[in-house]
């Protein structure tokens, strides 16, 4: 089992796709995490996104809470979500803002003034992330040798189209972990241990580390900050699609000594197949025939969930500790 998160250079994909596909495949079948370098997201776009995020979080709570989360869109305050509901006593020690797709300047949700003003920049950043995701998804279809007549290298890309109405569950999340407060919070963990709910996630960490990955299913290793790299990980959807061949690995954010003095900002970009996509094994001879028991869904859950049903189940669990009102506001589709 890998103990280090590999770095994959995705430059010149049209000519180097075989090698890139193999590198990414190896990461997905072992540790479930990898960094990509020479990707499609310009540094200035990343900087713009972080700067908008900070501008928003600097506003008073009352102003942010006007945009309180509905259907997993909008602002979630400190302790508002529990990513490890089985063990966490309190919710996550973080603030989050979840965006649904912004397409051609149109947002699907009301945006606070900072984001309304910056929405073109956010969309540009998001589309750049999407370009990297499309490379990763194509590489995975190549590595899995999906037959041409089944869709070949476009298999995953077809159900991940940024502009399609059915992919309304793409989510961009701006996160802030405010400095200090470990003594008051009394838990080592700031974001509970969890696996992601979508197909792949792109993660940007700015300046302050804190993310840990359960590399060997028992030991936690740090996911260090690597300049100009994006961290990519496999979500639960791929475990379903590959009968567990791809690993959707647990990760969490922990308090580090520097968190006492410094706010930590991160940005996660969650890709999600079109809502009606069935999470059944994909057409690949590399996928094992037998289906493992998936711990993330309750026992007795039907065998073949759609992507949207799976997402709902996972969201329900993370908001279950909230009031009935908040809970239903966040899981009803
Ligand atoms: O903030 C981070 O570094 C990780 C966040 C995360 O794992 C998530 O939101 O799913
Ligand atoms: Fe995550």
Any key phrases for this structure?
333 residues; alpha+beta; Jelly Rolls; eight-stranded mixed β-sheet; four-stranded antiparallel β-sheet; 14 strands; 19% strand; globular; binds 2-oxoglutaric acid; binds fe (ii) ion
What are the segments in which pLDDT stays under 50 over at least 5 consecutive residues? none
Instruction: Let me know the CATH homologous superfamily.
Output: B-lactam Antibiotic, Isopenicillin N Synthase, Chain
Which architecture name does CATH use? Answer: Sandwich
| Number of continuous helical runs | 10
How would you characterize this protein structure?
Helix 9 (307-319) runs antiparallel to helix 10. The protein has 333 residues and is of the alpha+beta class. The protein has a single domain (7-331), classed as B-lactam Antibiotic, Isopenicillin N Synthase, Chain (Jelly Rolls). Helix content is 31%, strand content 19%. The protein has helices at 13-29, 43-57, 61-65, 113-117, 119-143, 155-158, 182-185, 236-241, 307-319, 324-331, and strands at residues 7-9, 33-37, 74-76, 95-99, 102-103, 106-107, 171-177, 189-194, 200-206, 211-214, 220-222, 230-234, 251-254, 264-270. The strands form 3 sheets. The protein has an 8-stranded mixed β-sheet. The chain has a 4-stranded antiparallel β-sheet with strand order 8-13-10-11, with no helix packed on it. A two-stranded antiparallel ribbon has the order 5-6. The structure holds 2-oxoglutaric acid and fe (ii) ion. Fe (ii) ion (FE2) binds next to loops. InterPro entries: DIOX_N, IPNS-like_FE2OG_OXY, IPNS-like_sf, Iron_ascorbate_oxido_reductase, Oxoglu/Fe-dep_dioxygenase_dom. Residues 167-273 form the Fe2OG dioxygenase domain.
